Amino acid sequence: MRLQSAEIVDTFAEAFEMWVSRVIVTAATIEWARAAAQSMTGFATSVIRCKCEAAVERELEPDETPDRRPGVSVLLFTITEDGMAARLIERVGQCVMTCPTTACYNGLKTQRSVIVGGRLRYFGDGWQISKVLGGRRLWRVPVMEGEFLVDDRFGVQPAVGGGNLLILGAYSETALDAAAAAATVMRQVRGVILPFPQGVVRCGSKIGSQYKGLIASTSHTYCPTLRAVASDTQLGDQINSVFEIVVDGVDLHAVEEAMRRGIHVAAEHGALQISAGNYGGSLGKYHVHLHGLLNGQAPDSDMPGPVATPPGPPAPS
Predict the structure, then answer these.
(1) CA–CA separation, 271 vs 264, rounded Å?
(2) What CA–CA distances, in Å, run from 101 to 28, 138, 152, 317?
(3) Distance of alpha carbon 141 from its chain centroid, rounded?
(4) N or C: which terminus of the chain has fewer CB atoms within 10 Å of its end residue's CB?
């Protein structure tokens, strides 16, 4: 299949079951909210070494946040539900509670939840106060500036991680332009994040290594400098640079929509070939076929659903 000048490889992205939570950070100004969100999502590119994947989903207008202040929506993904509780306590406690003027709210209405504010309250050393508003318990933790307001519990739900595209080009500059353009439009889909810097990865990985103890190593079949010596290279003579875009979503439909938009834009911006990474279908529950995305065919998955909606209207007041 061809799209513009790009060949769309007949393959699929293999994605995995994960857990997601949405954190709403508000502050007196959008600059302070951004600062807290950026700090909270640092070193969160891959669960392989970072224990979670996280990024800013979008910025919020005051009429979209619980306390009517500027805000930022953050999505955080983990492999396990228990892991989610630990990561939220660490990151909200160290990066949001410490940031001037911030408050932190749950952004997912779900059946399942983990305790976050109910653990962070102990920082108040007995001076903390709980308050129930609209059936929702919040904690007021005294701090030197004033107080930090945080939800007692944060919603968690099953999610999809590891959707991906491989953008192949004749030169590094053109391949990167195509990947960056694709990442920009993919981030606009509600309910997804691209956890790597600016959404683009230059060192895709495969599982395992010739070195004992390493769980991942360079995806040598897509390394241009190894084309002449790697017998299993996947690169044709015209391909001299490859970038990957990894996408996590609150559901499969969000991941698929982001990938579909990314394919179109990468093709429009000069990609010679667009492919995806998988492990033969033996590891991940979800298989997103590139041709199926462009043909509008039903996804190869058992978790269809609507595109995720942004955080709801204010809860506490």
Answers:
(1) 10
(2) 6, 16, 19, 17
(3) 29
(4) C
> Full-prediction pTM beyond 0.70?
yes
To the nearest 10 degrees (0 to 180), the angle between helices 172-186 and 252-268 is 140
pLDDT at 258 over 90: yes
* Pairwise CA distance, residues 143 & 98, whole Å: 9
Q: Which pLDDT does position 297 carry in this prediction?
A: 66
> Which pair of structure tokens corresponds to residue 187?
């981030």
Q: What is the mean pLDDT of the chain?
A: 93
> What one-character DSSP code corresponds to residue 298?
P
Closest CA to 114 of 148, 143, 78: 78
Contact 175, 271 (CB under 8 A): yes
Tell me the C-alpha distance between 28 and 134, whole Å: 23
Q: Shortest CA distance to 127 belongs to which of 114, 145, 110, 139?
A: 139
d(CA 9, CA 7): 6
Query: Which long-range CB contacts under 8 A does 92-95 form with residues at least 24 apart?
Result: 92/23, 92/40, 92/116, 92/120, 92/150, 93/120, 93/123, 94/39, 95/36, 95/39, 95/40, 95/42
Which residue in 114, 201, 101 sits closest to 146, CA to CA? Answer: 101
Which pLDDT score is estimated for 111?
95
- In one-letter notation, the amino acid at residue 265 is V
Q: Are 245 and 162 in contact (CB under 8 A)?
A: no
Neighbours of 48 (CB within 10 A): 11
